[in-house]
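User: My collaborator sent over this chain with a note saying "see what the structure looks like." That's all I know about it. Can you take a look?
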Amino acid sequence: MDDPSRSNVIVIGAGIAGLAATLRLLERGFRVTLLERNNWLGGKLGAHQTGGAGGDFHEHSYHMYLNWYHNFWRITDEIGARKHFEPQHSMGYLRRGGGDWAPRLVRNTDVGAPETAYQNLMSGLRSPADMFLYSYALIDLLGTPAWHYEALDKMSVLSFLNSRHYLTRAAMSIQEDISLKAFASPNFLTAVQSFRKFISFSYCCPSPMMWLLRGNAQQCLFEPLERHLHRLASGGGRGQRLEIRPLHEVRRLCLTDAGAIERIEGVELAASPSMPSIGTASNPPVKGTFALPARGDVILAVPPQSVARLVDEAVFAHAPHLAAVRRMDSQPMISFDLYFKRPFALPCEVVGLLNSRFALSFLDTSRLWKSDPNAATFINVVASDALPISGYSPDMIRQLLIRELMEYLPFTTKDVDFERCHLQTNTTEELFTNEVGSWGLRPATACGIPNLFLAGDYCRNPIDVVTIEGAVTSGLLAAEAVRARAGMGAPIEIIEPNMAPEWILAGLKLAGLPYAHLAKAISTIERWLWRSYREVFPNG
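Assistant: Without extra context I'll predict from the sequence alone. Here is the result:
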C-alpha cells in the first residue's frame, strides 16, 4: 500500500449498512471513525429508550427477518446474536368485526412451500379459486424470463397483474393488501422488477416464513455488535482502531483540489446535545460546528434525504448523478407502541388488518419481549398507508389509530395505558420505496469523487429490494471498494441469494394455465351466485 492514510476511513451513519461496512473494515486492519446523528446504533433497525434507564424501548417498527438474508445472518452468527431470533411460520389476517377475534383470523403459512400449498389455498383469505389464481400469478411472474420485458423497472405490479386475463379482481386484491404492508407502497407504484426478485428469493427458502427478534434490537442485536466491534479494534494487533461519535451530524462534505482530482478533504460536523426529534420535521439545537479531516476514504451510509442535503454545488460538479436522489420517492410509515393496562390474548404472529383505512398491521411485542404471562400486553402497530394522516397532530393520529384498532380488537379506551404509549410518525425517517422507474435514479457504490462511497438499501446492489439484507449488502460493497482501493486484506465475500429456477417455473406456468382459466370460471360463478343470494335475502 503506497499511502498509509488510506487505512483511515470515516463511516457516516451507524445504521446496519454503515455497521456492516465498519465490521468488515476493522477485520482488515482499518482505522474507522463512525459518525451517527442519534445516540443509538442501528438507524431504522435500531431501538431507542425513553424515560432514561429502565424506560421502554421503542423501534422504528416491528421487523421481519427472512431466510434469504444470508449476509445479515452471517453477521448475527459472528456476534452470537442468532439465539435471540424466533422462527415464525405464518402471518395472520384479521377481518373487521366485534367480539372474539379468533373466528375472524385467517392465516397463510410458509407461502411458497409445497407442503403448505393446500392449507393456504383453503385458508379463507379469499375463495379457494381466487387463492389459486393469486398463487398462479406469482408462478406466472417467476416463470416469465426477465429479458421478456425490455424494462421491468418501468412496469408496476398492477400493470403486470392487469395484463393477465385469467385474474379476477378478488385475486388481485390480495396483492394490493400485501404490497402496502410489505413494501409500504401500493402495487400501482411498486416496480415489478423488485417484486419479482423479492418473491423469487423467498420461494427458494420458504420455511420458516420469517424470523422475529425476542427482544428489542438495541439489547439483542446492536449491543452485541458494538461489543464485537470494540473487541476487534482492541485485540486485532494490526493497527485497527474504532471511534464511535454519537450525536454528530454531518452538515457538509468538504472538497479540496488535489492536483487534477477533487476529493473529500473532511466533513463539517454539528454536535447536538440530544438526539434528533423523532416524528417531527424540526432540527434539534446544536452546540456548534467543526471540521473533521478525512485522511482516507469516506463511506456515506445515510438515507437518501440526507444525501440530497449534502449534494451542494461542489459535490454536484464532480458527482452530478447524486442529485438524482432528490427525485427518489419515499413514504412515511407511522409506528405506534400501544400499551394496555392488562394482559389479554392476541395472535402470536404478525397480523394485517383487512380493509384497514391506513393499511394497519400489528405484532404483540409483549409476547416476544417478556416472559411473564401476567404482565400487561403491548403491541407495535404500523400504518403503512400513513400519508393521509401523517400531517395531523400526534394526539389526532393516536385517536385515529386507536379508533381503527377498536373495530378489530376487543378493547376500549379504558384499557389503554396512555402514559406509556409512544407514537413515531417517522416523517424525518421516511422509507425509500421500490417504485416504478427508481432503479435509474439509485446511486452506485462509487461516484465521481474517488474517495467517496455510498451505502444504504436505496443504493444499487444485487438484492435490489429495499430490505435489511439490501442495506447490509450495500455496506459490504462499500467496504470492499475501500479495501480494494487501499489494497489491504482479503476480498470481502458477499453472498447473493438464489433465485427460483425460471425453466421449472416456466413449465409450471404452461401446465397451470388451463386450471387458471377454470378457476376464473369457478370464481365468476361463485360471485354471481353470492350476488343473487344477497338480492333474494338482503339480511342474510
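A starting point for your reply to your collaborator: The chain has a mean pLDDT of 89.
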